[in-house]
Amino acid sequence: MKTAVLIGFMGAGKTTVGHELAELLGLPLIDTDKEIIRRTGQTPGEIFATAGEASFRELEYTVLRDVIHKGGVIATGGGIVETPGNIQLLSEAGVPVYYLSGSFGQTLERLADDDTRPILRTKTLLEVAALWRSRLPKYDAAATTTVQTDGKTPRDIARLIQIAF
Ligand code: S3P
User: Fold this and answer.
1) Which residues does residue 45 pair with via DSSP β-bridges, in sequence order?
2) Looking at the predicted complex, does its ipTM rise above 0.95?
3) Which residue has a Cα nearest atom 8 of ligand 1?
4) What phi, psi does 72 have (nearest 5°)?
5) 75: Cα separation from own chain's centroid
6) pTM above 0.90, yes or no
């Protein structure tokens, strides 16, 4: 079964686009955050609060390693590129990695009033902007294709990826 991986910052639309893309390609959707919840019974927020971010990143790595060869559309968490092992898993698997890239402004709009993401809960706007800046080159390096998302619907984005797939 074929695999397509979606990466990008929180609020980039990875899960929503993932649903659309999985439908268009006739592949199952695997969401790494949901898989972590299924395995641990805890949300990312709860894991960050109790075990800490490092434990979450270990779980995230284990999940990616387990699912990367299964086939399907894999919607990752925004911090997947923070773990060098994940970048290595992606490049060794040789699967297409689509970076959903939007402007900081539009991403923030999508994240407005979000209180489920632990990283947003603990950071000021300036810190989120710094995180954004530090991650952009990592998404660029991990991606095989960059998809500009501003002004496009999730369906449009999924169609663009379907054409490139
Ligand atoms: C994170 C993004 C989240 C989730 C966790 C950490 C991050 O996923 O994995 O809260 O570090 O950017 P989304 O990108 O789906 O929000």
Assistant:
1) none
2) yes
3) 77
4) 135, 180
5) 5
6) yes
Question: For 64-80, what is each residue's pLDDT tens digit?
Answer: 999 999 999 999 999 99
CA-nearest of 131, 100, 84 to 5 is: 100
Report the residue among 83, 119, 139 best suited for mutation to probe ligand 1: largest number of ligand atoms under 8 A from its CB: 119
Could you tell me if the CB of 35 is within 6 A of ligand 1?
Answer: no
Q: Atom 6 of ligand 1 has which residue's CA nearest to it?
A: 79
Residue 52, amino acid = G
Q: Is 63 exposed, middle or buried (0-12, 13-18, 19+ CB in 10 A)?
A: buried
Task: Provide CB contacts within 8 A for 40, sequence distance 6+.
Answer: 47, 59
Q: Cα–Cα distance between 65 and 165 in angstroms, integer?
A: 22
Show the domains of the chain with their CATH numbers. 3-151 (3.40.50.300)
Give 47 Cα–ligand 1 centroid separation in angstroms: 12
Task: Give CA angle at 58 (56, 63), nearest 5°.
Answer: 95
Q: Are 48 and 118 in contact (CB under 8 A)?
A: yes
14 has binding-site annotation: yes
Contact criterion met (CB below 8 Å) for 147 and 153 = no
